[in-house]
Amino acid sequence: MAPVNKSEKDRVIIFDTTLRDGEQCPGATMSFEEKLEVAEMLDDLGVDVIEAGFPIASEGDFQAVSEIARRSKNAVIAGLSRGQPNDIDRCAEAVKFAKRGRVHTFIATSPLHMRVKLGMSPEQVIEASIASVTRARNLIDDVEWSAEDGTRSEMDFLCRIVETVIKAGATTVNIPDTVGYAVPEEYAQFIRTVIERVPNSDKAVFSVHCHNDLGMAVANSLAGIGGGARQVECTVNGIGERAGNAALEEIVMAINVRKDKYPYWNKIDTTMLTRASKLVSAATSFPVQYNKAIVGRNAFAHESGIHQDGMLKDASTYEIMRPEMVGLKQSSLVLGKHSGRHAFVHKLEEMGYKLGANQVEDAFVRMKALADRKKEIYDEDIEALLDEEIAAAYDRIKLSSLTVIAGTHGPQRATMKLDIDGQTRIEEAEGNGPVDAVFNCIKALVPHQAKLELYQVHAVTEGTDAQAEVSVRLSQDGRSMTARAADPDTLVASAKAYLGALNKIVMKKQRDMPTQAAS
């Protein structure tokens, strides 16, 4: 049902071929169950036509198309077939269980393809097209005909064959840019010319199907709509042969956001786009590039300090659409080496930290230093950094530098420089392993009787550049003190955690001394 005040002539039919053309992408084959799951999602998404497969290709493909047809709720279920009787019959058999089925038959029309691939004359191609469309139309009411390599076909011949297939019963005519050769201006004019020159063009819906070999599939598809096409064939995440197809999510959001340029409408529920992208990515085992428009991991992420400052003041400064429109909860302000103080303070407030100006400045400097050493700063990194920052403000013993020599040939050796009450001291020590060498250094620099009760390491976040968080518990005179420290270098984190616990013991002694003197 068309929305209020929206004309049917401005409606763009979304024809999704993720399960057919998308699956032809090398390595993107889906299991039977995965196809059913993707088809159900596409139906819920609001896709008008789901091209479920190529039934003649295999028994598995036939079964998948048949089952998808049985389960379809709203979408037309199409199957692809060559212009051969057996193909058409098999395709019609597979989609007959759908509430609305479609046979999509194709044949090449460019001089190159007709000569090299088909070995047929233009007249033979016309006769074969009439025969295939007639046969399909006798089996099913909805028939789509495609001119493979349409954009490299001769215009006079193309107009002639389009006129004949519409007379034969084709209800949709697809003029694909099969090899991604077209550019937007010429493709728009190409579609417009065919529609204007074919006398019975008003009897069929014209469709575009663009490949991305030159990176213009989406631009060409939108141009084709501007030229008069009212069906666009596309795939989720733009997957497909070679460089892929026009991406469904990009076409839909371009129409949604730029109504001034594309005054059309469709039935897609845009809040499901992110979910659809993730499902298709998982089913095909094809990751989505981080900077992919609309659904990429970084599509609504900002690290630049200038951008983050603008986003915090007004999201429209750097976002032309809201993340909620495509199914995300919110934009992401990623902390990194390009982030500014404004974003850092905003993150601290979100995490519930209330720090003084000097503490914020110190923490910001430390965050920048950490960002130079690892790619992305997570909330857990900030928590570890601030816990260490707050504890360090009261430390009498601070780590200045640490060098460790480790490997298969021991003993391991550590060289450490400490700041003890404002004075610098250096020591070198050996140990049974690098951690033991580090702790022996500390014992030589700060003699004590504390016993190591716990030494524990775990990664703060994922990845090989993750910070290591080390917990150390020392006991002396019947009292235990525990400290944690984090650093991308596990040995540095170990030294800091040990010193943190040792500082607590020293502070405890200082607090106890006045009490002992008084007694």
Summary keywords:
alpha/beta; 16 helices; 8-stranded parallel barrel; TIM Barrel; 16 strands; elongated; 3 domains; Double Stranded RNA Binding Domain; 519 residues; 3-stranded antiparallel β-sheet
Give the SSE layout.
Layout: E1 13-16, H1 32-45, E2 49-53, H2 59-71, E3 76-82, H3 85-95, E4 101-108, H4 111-118, H5 122-139, E5 143-148, H6 155-168, E6 172-174, H7 184-197, E7 205-209, H8 217-226, E8 231-234, H9 248-257, H10 273-284, E9 301-302, H11 305-313, E10 332-333, H12 341-350, H13 357-371, H14 379-392, E11 397-405, E12 412-420, E13 423-431, H15 434-445, E14 451-459, E15 468-476, E16 479-487, H16 490-518
Parallel strand pairs: 1-2, 1-8, 2-3, 3-4, 4-5, 5-6, 6-7, 7-8, 9-10
Antiparallel strand pairs: 11-12, 12-13, 14-15, 15-16
